[in-house]
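Thread: Modeling a multi-component assembly for a lab meeting

Hi all, long-time lurker, first post. My supervisor asked me to bring a structural picture of a complex we are working on to next week's group meeting, and I have zero experience with this. I have the sequence lines for every component (588 residues in total). Could someone generate the structure of the whole assembly? Inputs are pasted exactly as I received them:
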Amino acid sequence: MSELWELPAAELGTKIARKETSARDVVDAHLSRIEALDESVNAFLTLTPELARATADDVDRNVSAGEKLGPLAGVPLALKDILCIDGVRTTAGSKILENYKPPYDATVVQKLFAAGVPIIGKANMDEFAMGSSTENSAYGPSRNPWDLARVPGGSSGGSSAAVSAGFAPLGIGTDTGGSIRQPASLCGVVGVKPTYGLVSRYGVLAFASSLDQVGPFARTVEDAALLLEVIAGYDRMDATSIRQPVPQYRAALDAGVKGLRIGVVSDWIEGEGVQPGVTQSIRAAIDALSGLGAEIGEISLPSFRYALSAYYLIAPAECSSNLARYDGVRWGLRASDAKDVVEMNVRSRTAGFGDEVKRRIMLGTYALSAGYYDAYYGKAQQVRTLVIRDFEKAYERFDVLLGPTSPTTAFKIGEKADDPLAMYLNDVFTIPSNLAGAAAISVPSGLADDGLPVGLQLLGPPMSEELLFKVAYAYEQARGPIATPPLWVNA
Amino acid sequence: MALTREQVAHVARLARLAFTDEELDRFANQLSDILSYADQVTALATEDVPPTSHALPLKNVFRPDEIEPCLSQEKALSTAPEVEQGRFKVPRIMEEP
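Re: Modeling a multi-component assembly
Sure thing. I ran the full set together rather than chain by chain. Output:
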């Protein structure tokens, strides 16, 4: 018999609703696993056992009272430490917010509470979501449950490591340039970057506001679909929120892929820097989808090779503007004994921000400064238009696009830490969807020859989540169960 | 595009950050590398392409101008490093006369 922490979210929800187990027992099983193993993984920055148990007890009371609850009621979740919970420390992985306790809940958090989802802790991340490894966290890196000497990816690496390690079957991350999909790929879990505007950003500490989007992590496609149903939807507190009803993602899962046109992004399959083991795994996934009756073709998207450079102008520009709010006045770290307010600003920011955040603030400030705005920021926004046009052309021929999520499997901690540009190249396949505000999903496609997980990325137009879930689910069923991380055995 | 130490120091002043000389040199090198890579973008001929600042076709979003509940003064000040008489307190802003 499986331990409670091994079960997928949908199964746990059913067991709780049928009183085969209690939400309290489910939460406690995950908390003991965290207690035993998180010292070696460092997935969490803050644990919230009282909060999780209170939610679980509410769920158990409601089950006893015969109330009909949502499918995820009582199922624990790891929340990226960039979403605010009223009164709970929220650091964004930064020293500048070491003691910050926000006075309100993010909309996503309100929705999780309403669905009876116990939040078990705040997950580690690269500082202000800037990074691809969690090595930029001011509180030390998280470690990959598949190999503790390797990174879990980033920036939402704490959430993906938690879901992979069995600390929680569900996780929440944010994806600005790949920060959900890449860590999902490196940890062998499912990660969804929803359409821009599908999930509210209210109460999410801002990095690059035209790109940031909240999304789910899970170990199965079904669980990810259920979680997106909970957190998606129009919110008047977010002016960029899409006014459309949320589809029932789970209901559409098993419609199959027969006759569906899938476009393989050819430059991504054997491009420069793509690990051969990754290519092999993706080719096997393509064969599986073809076997299910999908029509496979190839496509080349010329503007995509400029997407990374455009992103590394747009995101830093928006970040330099967003992070101006950390001035030591209203919240966060304040340097003491400054002689005037400017010195206080400078010393607080200099002491509070880490190197990568400073690098991006500097890059963005430069790209927006007089004389360079047109050459950098203006051009980057034009490239954004070209990327959107290439996607539109591709979707005339294909229903969805396909490629790897990340060019490599998980790399060693420290391997790329001193080379910012090498680190940025992790995001080369994920960035186009962010620039276009479109949807994408990463599904595990098994292990590469190095024994580490590979992620298959499926890309669709804005609001194509139902379609992507359907393809991902069909693939997942054809693929069959995958290996579990060594951390599952050593427990 | 190579940035000089002086340019980096100027941008740091704009961004309200302070760096040691060693950091200025390191940042000058790293930012120059990143900008050289980004020069791919500036080299693209895109004269007739309109810029995209936002991926969705959203116009201004308005709501009725009605008073609604909001954070209390106490809660809004609860995160502040220093508070005085219901306000955020900061070090001196003006020079003494």
